[in-house]
Amino acid sequence: MIRLTLAALRRAIVGVWDDIKASTDASLLGMARFIGLLYGPIDRSLSIDQAWRKALRYRLAPHVGWRHALGSITYLLFVVLVITGVLLAIFYRPSVQEAYPSIQHIVSETPFGWLVRDLHHWSANLIVIVLLMHMARVFFEAAYKPPRETNWLIGILLLFVVLLFGGTGYLLPWDQWSYWTLTEVMTAIARFPLVGRRFAEAIMGDVIPSGATLSRFFALHVIVLPWIAFALLGYHFTLVRRRGIAPPMNVERERRRQRRSGRYSPDEQAKEGVPFYPNHLLRSFMVAVVTIAIAITLAILFPRGLADPADPYAVPGELVSTWVPVDVSLALIRLAGTWGFTLFTLLGVSLILVPLLDRGPARRLRERPVVAVLGLTFFIGYVALWIAGRAIGSVTPSESLGTGVVAEQVVPSPPSLAVPDGNRAEPVPAPEAQRERGVR
Amino acid sequence: MSRRGLIAAIGGLVLLSPVAGSDAARLAAQEGTRSNQDASTYGCIVCHADMRRAFAQGAHAERGIRCHTCHGGDTSQVEVATAHRGRFLGAPSKQATTELCASCHSDPNQMRQYGLAADQLAEFRTSRHGELLLGRGNADAPTCTDCHEAHTIRPANDARSMVHPTNIPRTCGLCHDDAALMRKYGLSVDQLSRFMAGAHGKAIFEDRNFAAPTCIGCHGSHAALPPDVTEIDHVCGKCHVLLADALYAGPHGTPSLTRRIPGCLGCHTNHGTERLPPEQISELCVTCHAAESSMATLGQEIEEQVLHARGELELAAEAIARMVKTGRDVSDERFRYRAAYTAYQQLAKVQHSLDLEQLEDLGREVRSNAAVVRSTAEAYAEERWEHNLLLMPLWFLTLSGVAFAAFKLRELGRVSHG
Q1: Which of A187, A179, A176 is nearest to A213 (CA)?
Q2: DSSP state letters, B39-60
Q3: Separation CA B9–CA B6 (nearest Å)
């Protein structure tokens, strides 16, 4: 019985595959390649299954190793985030009244809701780390040099997209930590001369984070940013393929490898190197499995807690950071002050710009001392600050928050009265003055 | 006309002329119409502009009362000599002030329209202040205007008024916090500071709870007198009805009613009115009862009950906080906690009757509700701990997968080399 069922199932699958083979050609694989599922060149003269096998057996240069997996891990985490994000979006309700209770529902009542949420949370943390490691690899190996400088820029855009994802997602739990951390950030933005206030209010749709902010952050987080990310990722993968993987650092000049068309040419097929299938696929599998296992382990062992529901009238005693960039900012502001924060941000920005200026053929670190020092300072500093931020864990909200630039406009301060501290509360008109008035 | 008078007259005309458009002139004109007087002939404000400003902010200005109603004189004149003529009183003395105010305020027919009582002077006469001022002519004692201001007399519900609940302690303190003045009458000056630090002061100034009494809540306002020691339980019981009932129902009740023990003051203090921490209950008992007596034991048992209940409440609150942190909905547990907390508050009442049985009942209610909260929290924590068990299959599968892949890779390497 079972055997019969299995055989029928197999027949059905083979039938579908045959249909696909018969009705399409190898060009369909371009789609798979665009979304990062395939790397090799596609021989469009073959049928789709033969072209698929040929592309899988594509040989990668011998120097391509484990460190090149960092990009794939980033993509894997992105996919994990998309899947867990879709699952969360099924239960999450983006409104001021329902956001917090819906998180409670996800965490304590939905089957494995806690796992999905914490996996989303931890993937969002890990993706920042892995993304920076991927960037560091590209940076130090000079893989950003021509002809790959466009891809560095796309990568930078992707970094911003990831940061925007985190920034918009940070508010969604709508608890005190997320609410007031965002208020801190927005207050800081609003202090920026001339345009700051207008910009902050444009982002929030209100003068404080409110229901309007929640709606638009949700829309950005689940609708706008994913499409931007997919488009950028597709182009990122396309450029990786078209410009090739950077040669090892000891190669001074690489062979010019740019083609006009995307058509397959036989001389692309390297005779040496390690085939993608099965060798690189097995490595990718190992890396992927371990990455997911680490993310799940972190999700199980260190769940992201929930503070009290957001309350615009009560500044909490402490703000607990739950995301890597927030950890880093928190450590920077605590240890180095606002100026330290500004300087480190400038260092990061200069790191983005360096590859646009550093276009010479030199690849070894020894020949690029300035770049090496800048890079080391930033990446080591980032990790150190992240660890410091995790150790600090929480920070008291700034004192100006309750009466801050943003908050003061609509949140009325509670009725304040000079609480008497001792015998005399306030200077009162002395009795003599009153008597005098009576006498005159 | 003297030179000064001329200048004053010109100044007055300038001030009053509508062409000048100044605020003062406009107000004066309005006032004039209201009191059926020609504005140009209302002379007091030529010299007493500041008084007029102060008066305009008070309640009397709205009721059509004008300078001459209290001070007399001829308001149509602008010169000192002619204006201060006729039935001119000037600034009345303290004693005369009481009569002056009473000329309206003791007339029920006039006061009825404002919903005011007309017995202030009668009450004042019975007070220590009235006795000193009117009986002995002692000018240290306050008259009406010392607490209500002379010109800017505001109603008590105006927060700027000297007799608004938040200002009363300060108003009384004007004299009663003056050590030199109080020494003459053998009074201490720590009442204000103790009141501010006590439960009533905190209720008013920190919680803005105007149901709490200020000085006048216990002493009365116009008939200000310290309540007699024997009257204390009735004064306190006026608000603390349930506590008074419990006190009278218990063994301390009859002695309090028959004035053999000082009632509330046996354990609490008058101006401080501090909440007594439960840890002090047994210590308080032995201030009157012998240390080894059955009464002292009862005190210890009561203290234990209260402390135990409080400890349970704290643990339940912590359990709820832990559950909130993990993202669980705790509305049921909060409801339970509230039930426990209500019972705990009833403990405070029942303590006064020294009824141990009732205390134990309430203590049980606190403990059972708190225990439900805690057991829920424990069950939930256990459930969450079980998540960790997932790690075993997770890493078993992961490591198997990695091992398989590594094995396969090694095999591939051997093939390509071999």
Answers
A1: A179
A2: GGG--HHHH-HHHHHHHHTSTG
A3: 5
Put simply, the chain B residues between 320 and 349 with a CB less than 8 A from any chain A CB are: 324-329
Q: B325–A279: do the CB atoms touch at under 8 Å?
A: no
**Tokens of residue B169, six digits:** 């302690």
Per-residue pLDDT of chain B (418 residues; tens, 9 = 90+): 455 554 544 444 444 444 444 454 455 444 444 444 444 447 788 888 888 888 888 888 888 888 888 888 888 888 888 888 878 888 888 888 998 899 899 999 989 888 888 888 988 988 889 989 988 888 889 999 999 988 888 888 888 889 998 899 989 999 998 999 999 888 888 888 889 888 899 888 888 888 889 988 888 888 877 776 667 778 888 889 999 899 989 999 888 888 788 888 888 888 888 788 889 898 989 988 998 899 999 999 999 999 999 999 999 999 999 998 888 889 899 999 999 999 999 998 899 999 999 999 999 999 999 999 999 999 999 999 999 999 999 999 999 999 999 999 999 888 766 5
- CATH architecture type of domain A65-143+275-306: Up-down Bundle (1.20)
Q: At A279, give phi and psi (nearest 5°).
A: -60, -55
Query: Contact A362/A200 with Cβ under 8 angstroms?
Result: no
Distances (CA, A) of A418 to A216, A426, A427, B157, B279: 40, 8, 12, 19, 32
Inspect the interface and report whether the beta carbons of B327 and A428 lie closer than 8 Å.
Answer: no
> Which residues, listed in sequence order, are joined to residue A60 by a DSSP beta bridge?
A274
Instruction: List the single residue in B196, B206, B412 with the smallest CB-CB distance to A278.
Output: B412
Could you tell me if the ipTM is greater than 0.85? no
Nearest-by-Cβ selection for A428 from B51, B150, B174 = B174
CB-count burial class (<10 Å; 0-12, 13-18, 19+) for B411: exposed
Secondary structure of residue A205 in the 3-state scheme: coil
State the best of A417, A421, A439 to mutate against chain B, taking most chain B CBs within 10 Å. Answer: A417
* pLDDT at site A267: 55
Closest Cα in chain A to B190:
A423
* The pLDDT of residue B230: 67
| Token pair belonging to B380 | 């939930």
Beta-carbon-side half-sphere exposure of residue A400 (alpha carbons within 13 Å): 10
Q: Does A434 touch chain B (CB under 8 A)?
A: yes
> How far apart, in Å, are the Cα atoms of A403 and each of A312, A399, B326?
11, 8, 31
- Check: CB of residue A122 under 8 Å from CB of residue A295: yes
The owner of tokens 């009183």 is B89
The closest of A298, A168, A283 to A228, measured between CA atoms, is A168
The mean pLDDT value for A100-117 works out to 94
Do residue B402 and residue A300 have CB atoms under 8 angstroms apart? no
Q: How far apart are CA B256 and CA B250, in angstroms?
A: 10
Confidence of residue A402 (pLDDT cuts 50, 70, 90): low
Contact A300 B390 (CB under 8 A): yes
CB B59 within 8 A of CB B20: no
Domain map (residue ranges) of chain B: 3-83, 227-274, 294-389
pLDDT digits (tens, 9 = 90+) for A189-237: 888 888 888 999 999 998 889 999 999 999 999 999 999 999 999 999 9
Using CB atoms within 10 Å of the CB of residue A236, give its burial: 0 to 12 exposed, 13 to 18 middle, 19+ buried: buried
Counting beta carbons within 10 angstroms of the beta carbon of residue B415, is it exposed (0 to 12), middle (13 to 18) or buried (19 or more)?
exposed
Q: How is chain A split into domains, by residue range?
A: 65-143+275-306, 322-392
Positive or negative CA dihedral for A432, A437, A440, B3? positive
The span from the CA of A239 to the CA of A236, in Å, is: 5
Q: Tell me the one-letter amino acid at A306.
A: L
Asked if A297 and B170 come within 8 Å (Cβ–Cβ), the reply is: no
Mutate to test the interface with A, among B175, B322, B325 (most CBs of A within 10 A): B325
CB–CB contact B177 A424 (8 Å): yes
